[in-house]
Amino acid sequence: MTNELDVEQVDCLFIGTGPIPLLEALNESLQGRSVLMVDDAHVIGGAWSSISLFGYSEVENAVHYLLPSETAVTFLNEVIAVPVVRTAGKFRALSVGRRRFMTPYDSPASAFFSLANRRESMLGRVRSLLAGAPGKGSFYFAGGSPSFIARLQSMIEMSRVQIRLQTKVLELSCEEEELVRVTLSDGIVFAKKVIITHGTKIPAYRGIRGSVEVAESLHPRPAAHVLISNCRSVKVRECIFVNDSQLKYVHDVTDFSSTFESDPTKRIIAAAFHPEVSYSYPVIDRLLGELQKVGMADSDSRILDHHWQSVYLPSLDDAALRTIASGFAGRVIPLRTESLSHGIAENAYRWSSLLAFKGALPNSR
Ligand SMILES: Cc1cc2nc3c(=O)[nH]c(=O)nc-3n(C[C@H](O)[C@H](O)[C@H](O)COP(=O)(O)OP(=O)(O)OC[C@H]3O[C@@H](n4cnc5c(N)ncnc54)[C@H](O)[C@@H]3O)c2cc1C
Fold first, then answer.
1. Which ligand 1 atom sits nearest the alpha carbon of residue 341?
2. What is the pLDDT of residues 43-54, one digit of tens each?
3. Residues lining ligand 1, judged by CB closer than 6 Å?
4. Strands 180-184 and 187-197, how do they pair?
5. Which domains does the chain have, with CATH numbers?
6. Which of the listed residues 89, 206, 209, 261 has the most CB atoms within 10 Å of its CB?
7. What's the rounded Cα separation, in Å, for the pair 265 and 144?
8. pLDDT by residue (tens digit) across 319-346?
9. pTM (2 d.p.)
10. Probe target for ligand 1 pocket from 313, 332, 333, 346, with the most ligand atoms within 8 Å of CB
């Protein structure tokens, strides 16, 4: 999908191709600026790109969700024209001894269940309570994140945005008047403005006053996918474990993926664990037990295959982004991306030029 690249100087250079940078890049391009996006991954989408697994393609690479934001839901539906719908089959589970008490995500009881999350501070619990207030419901892409990324890819292909994949940004430096020198793994590009995000990782920054020291922090997000058999009577599609010692969240992502598999009772479940959990067979075995207890697997279901991922949340926080921006006197611009829906809501008012795409694309799945 990479367009022909013949660029030595661009107006805007983006590091990474997560959804929010993609939308920002499209907006810049529609306003007549030359845009180059560089990503060391082999596909676009960053943490939202999908993977191939267990003979299925377009599998959500992790448990994903949209934090509550009416603006983001409206923007995605109305401007990007990717269907975002109220989530069905989403529950919270409270463990009391060997029993699991389930409540629908948007029920009043669910809010009280969320208070049982002992790992959050009291302020965090109140915030969660307000954010996930009963009745508000939860919204997600009808076709999962693969449908969103496919939509963004179509928009990029119709635009003048250039993307260079499998290319690493090694250094940003401010040697040239008004320009940032961007050292890539395979060359050098000069940019009037460089856009960085929470997910940017660059080995060296040399700003206008010399080296910029950036504090990166590591936030492990252990995750697993399991392929399970004999799921005949499952009604629960998503479950938040409010007080489990290992599990945080599980999501049945089978219906978002593509496969030639003809057995609908085989399901792919994505699971997110607490940061300190590390890979072992007992952890995977216990996951099956929990899926059975909350109704996402039947009593005779078995794990056919599994895949563990030790991923990390973005390592730059807001303070680090500000440090870099100030080191480059405004030529390096931070874009806040740590929450997809909130990032969209923050910028949606500026992205009205993206309406140009509405109706110009075939319906997404
Ligand atoms: C597994 C996972 C699941 C998540 N789930 C959710 C969720 O459900 N909801 C939510 O709101 N948020 C979620 N997040 C938070 C996530 O941080 C944001 O949604 C968002 O993806 C961050 O966007 P980003 O573009 O900054 O970074 P990323 O999405 O991480 O993308 C950064 C991209 O830039 C590339 N890159 C970085 N540095 C360089 C370099 N030097 N040279 C070349 N390429 C580079 C990376 O390879 C990557 O492809 C999740 C994060 C992770 C890791």
1. 11
2. 999 999 999 999
3. 15-18, 20-21, 38-41, 46-48, 62, 64-65, 67, 168-169, 197-202, 221, 311, 313-314, 337-341
4. antiparallel
5. 9-49+146-217+315-357 (3.50.50.60), 88-137+219-313 (3.90.660)
6. 206
7. 19
8. 999 999 999 999 999 999 999 999 999 9
9. 0.92
10. 313
